Amino acid sequence: MESVIGRNIADFIIKENKLTLDGAKLSYLRRVGGRISRVCSRSGLTYHFYIIDEDGFDAFSLPGGYIFLSKGLVDDTSEGELAFCLAHEIAHICSRDGLKQLRDLLGPGAVLSLSSPGANNALIKRAADIVYNAVALGYSTRQELAADSLAVEYIYKAGYNPSAGISLLKKIKNNSVNQHSLIFLRSHPPVTERIKNIEEKIHQLD
Q1: In this predicted structure, what is the pLDDT of residue 158?
Q2: Rounded to whole angstroms, how far apart are CA atoms 29 and 40?
């Protein structure tokens, strides 16, 4: 059910946005994403990775394993930083944060309708609007910090240095060229709070 919901919303988002079809970029993204998905708590899901042709730093996920990143985020980060971003989004999927938000805002009946392959287009658009709103406003502070904590665990298990999460947050914050599109920061708890949380989780790994 969850995968069908994600597929229905993903199809709508794909139609509404210009995607990057660069084979090398997609291969790179899927390779890094694959390393994370194999060690996450829901490794049995099939994960799908897409690049939206935008220059800003942006990322969001859908129920069932669908993840969208902006081209700017893929191009202007190190592999470790990209891995942390993907791990954060995969953590939301593992925690079913997106599905919970859809249930809260649409109701269980509408979510059940979304799980049908022939779901109503108007309902799918409402669900996509909720996803966009989550990107703009974010999940709760508790959910976001929990996703960062899981991301530290996932990238560590995947063989990346978890301090990449700290460098990613600092890079995005200090990148004045992209200040107009820092949705990844605007939609989350303060950077200082996130960095402190990541540092604490890294310390627990030692």
Answers
A1: 98
A2: 17
For residue 180, what are the contacts with CB-CB under 8 A and spacing of at least 6?
56
Residues 6+ apart with CB under 8 A from 89: 59, 60, 61, 67, 147
pLDDT averaged over consecutive 10-residue blocks of the chain (206 residues)? 85 92 96 98 96 89 94 94 97 92 79 71 75 69 92 97 94 60 58 91 87
Task: Give strand pairing partners of 68.
Answer: 50, 60
Cα–Cα dist 153/57, whole Å: 23
Residues in CB range of 87: below 8 A, 6 or more apart: 36, 40, 150, 151, 152, 154, 155, 158
What tokens appear for 70 in the block? Answer: 């902006």
pTM of the model: 0.89
Amino acid at 143: Q
* Nearest-angstrom CA–CA distance, 9 and 68: 12
Residue labelled with tokens 């893929």: 74
What does the block give as tokens for 37? 């998905």
| CB-based burial, 87-115: b 16+ in 10 Å, e otherwise | bbbbbbbbbebbbebbeeebeeebbebbb
* Residue 60, strand partner residues: 68
Query: What pLDDT shows up at residue 185?
Result: 56
Which residue is associated with the tokens 């859809």?
102
